[in-house]
Design brief:
Blueprint (H helix, E strand, L loop, with lengths): L3 E3 L2 E3 L3 H20 L6 E5 L3 E7 L8 E6 L2 E10 L14 E10 L4 E11 L2 E8 L2 H4 L8
Antiparallel strand pairs: 1-2, 3-4, 4-9, 5-6, 6-7, 8-9
Length: about 140
């Protein structure tokens, strides 16, 4: 075993061993804060509609904005927590701010008038109705 100097101190461990553990603990704590937090989505299709389940815990229904423009459904959410009580004795405090945006391109079989959304137990459920088959059925057009 060799002696290695660290910051004018002598240790009996290899430098690579210490660097691995130092980087593991410091980077693991910091990386969680910088991860782009886009919620997971489940998309279900039945004969009459599509259903989008978007996992977004900790929000309220007022935090969401849903918009349909042409064939694109966009979902935004933004939450900023601000406390009026000021605590000066904290060692570390992170600002609480959460936002995301997701867009979905909808197929032609979607009826834009049949879209509903509800937020239950941390999951945003968006139900998108399909057009009636009678509207999209093939028609024979006679030439006159």
């Amino acid at each position: 075993m060799t002696l290695v100097k660290f910051n004018n101190r002598t240790r009996n461990t290899a430098p690579y061993f210490n660097n691995v553990f130092d980087s593991l603990f410091s980077e693991a704590l910091n990386k969680n804060l910088t991860i782009n937090k886009i919620p997971g989505v489940n998309i279900l299709e039945s004969d009459v509609n599509y259903k989008i389940e978007l996992a977004a815990p900790g929000l309220t229904k007022e935090d969401f904005q849903i918009n349909l423009k042409k064939d694109t459904l966009s979902v935004w959410a933004e939450k900023q927590v601000s406390e009026t009580e000021e605590k000066k004795d904290y060692t570390r405090k992170e600002f609480e701010y959460f936002s995301f945006a997701r867009s979905f391109v909808l197929p032609e079989s979607v009826d834009g008038d049949k879209i509903t959304a509800e937020y239950i137990n941390g999951i945003l459920n968006i139900t998108i109705g399909k057009k009636d088959d009678s509207q999209s059925a093939a028609k024979e057009i006679k030439v006159s």
